[in-house]
Amino acid sequence: MAYSQEKLVEEKVFKDPVHRYVHVRDRVIWDLIGTKEFQRLRRIKQLGTTYLTFHGAEHSRFNHSLGVYEIIRRIIDDVFDGRPEWNSEQRLLSLCAALLHDLGHGPFSHSFEKVFDLDHEAFTQKIILGNTEVNRVLTKVSKDFPKMVAEVIAKTSPNKLVISLISSQIDADRMDYLQRDAYFTGVSYGHFDMERILRVMRPKEDQVVIKQSGMHAVEDYIMSRYQMYWQVYFHPVTRSAEVILTKILHRAKHLYQKGYQFKHEPIHFYSVFAENITLYDYLKLDEAVILYYFQMWEEEEDLILRDLCVRFMDRNLFKYVEFDPAKEYKKLSELSTLFAKAGLDPEYYLVVDSSSDLPYDFYRPGEEEERLPIQLLMKNGEVRELSRESQIVDAISGKRRTDHKLYFPADLLKDDSSKKNIKKQIRNLLDL
Amino acid sequence: MLKDHAKIMQAFAAAGEIVGRKKLQKMIYIAKKVDFPFQERFQFHFYGPYSEELTLRVEELCNMGFLNEVKEKKGGYMQYRYSLTDEGMEFLNMNLVELPALEDCLTDMNSQNARFLELVSTVLFFDDLEVEEVKEKIFTLKSKQKYTEDEIKQAYEYIEALKGKVVPV
């Protein structure tokens, strides 16, 4: 029997708090889960620094990847199977792309990628196409199979239907992370009737569409998403931790480039600091490694690196005030000067952080945004864009919400043992 | 501090008025690919490389009053014109970013049409592939645009010319 068709003698199941069980019958999927590159995802948290705000948010990208796989498996095996618009030969491709879609995420990826100008999606491609265990499993299916999986994940595959299952405004990725993140953070947002949505999904040539009767379940999903973004993902305390994490990485890189002699040599970071990181080096990095260095750097001579690491490890985070860049950029410049005079390098201790979300948008021909809209399948067989039918969705379509905050170490500003007058001026400007 | 905003504004200062969101997206992507330090991340979308972060940045700059956006009806769709406002110039003067050769490159790109820039950016997106594979990608993913072999050749030549402009003297 061809490897692609091979089934396990007995179905394997993973107990899962969100989907109850994740079912694996395909040998290829079982083998991929066992690869070291996939197992690495156990050591990367799904929500980065969110655990410092919501203590339950310790779940990993491994959990989420299995969840996305399970949702796609249910859509294909329980809903699409046997429908004329669905080509069953795409089943394994869809399952593999779902399982591997986040494979290239690094530790605390948001900050890490920003500081070192890396892109987890590029690493996903490299892991799938490079000299890795994952590549060897996929190549056993066929020589071209790794490329096909990589193209679906990169959205450069001609197979738009499979892409839309994994990446669109209503996809398995979002459906899993909203529910999983809600479960682990313990918030009451993020819940919607996924079973209902799955049952009304239908394959079409270029994308998945939703039967009109499922519109209210989709509305609920969009609202859940909106609430999760503002209540969980953009929580200001989480953002504060992220700001400090980013600044630690910036400082360490800066020190390395200046020839600073670290007491504890950051060997895991050398290639990333030198901007020539290899896939091998990248795969060695996980959050346990990063946190180990943060703990070691608490003992460094450099006062900024030391202070930032102590703050992160002990959760002594920056405070914040609302900030309007349009009206207050001159004030920001003034603050920056005062921070420097107070002996607080503004590059590390005065940070503007912005959060922004567009809950739903539709495609307007020619010039506009390029998001794939959610399409409803009407009773007469026509397809209509969601916001044309749903007043609730119409009300939020294309409406972006943005929020800016200014972060700083309030404890240092309130310490009058030095530069008392300057700190007082700063506190007045910040309304502290 | 607001450095990434300043870099995008520097692009507008260098290029002058930019007409069309698609064109703007492709210009910044191409500039990034030829080594200008723009931070916005791009993914492959309908029209080629597209950055949600850039869309957001431009929207913010408009809300801040630093960029002027003029919306005009053009046949069946809306077209957007962008230019720096006086407040934007003032902000930029306070946050100058040194980007040598940017003006030359962006002025050149601004004189090209969006269709050609879409092709150039797509070629750059697949720059790790062999030329024949890139052509196959373009003919498959961009079949509606009906690009010719000759246009693809011109895109490669254009990329080389741009790279020549940014090489330090």
UniProtKB/TrEMBL annotation, chain A:
SMART domains: HDc (SM00471). Gene3D superfamilies: Hypothetical protein af1432 (1.10.3210.10). PROSITE patterns: HD (PS51831). It holds the Pfam family HD. Residues 61-178 form the HD domain. It comes from the Bacteria. This is HD domain-containing protein.
TrEMBL record, chain B:
It comes from the Bacteria. This is YwgA family protein. It comes from Robertmurraya beringensis.
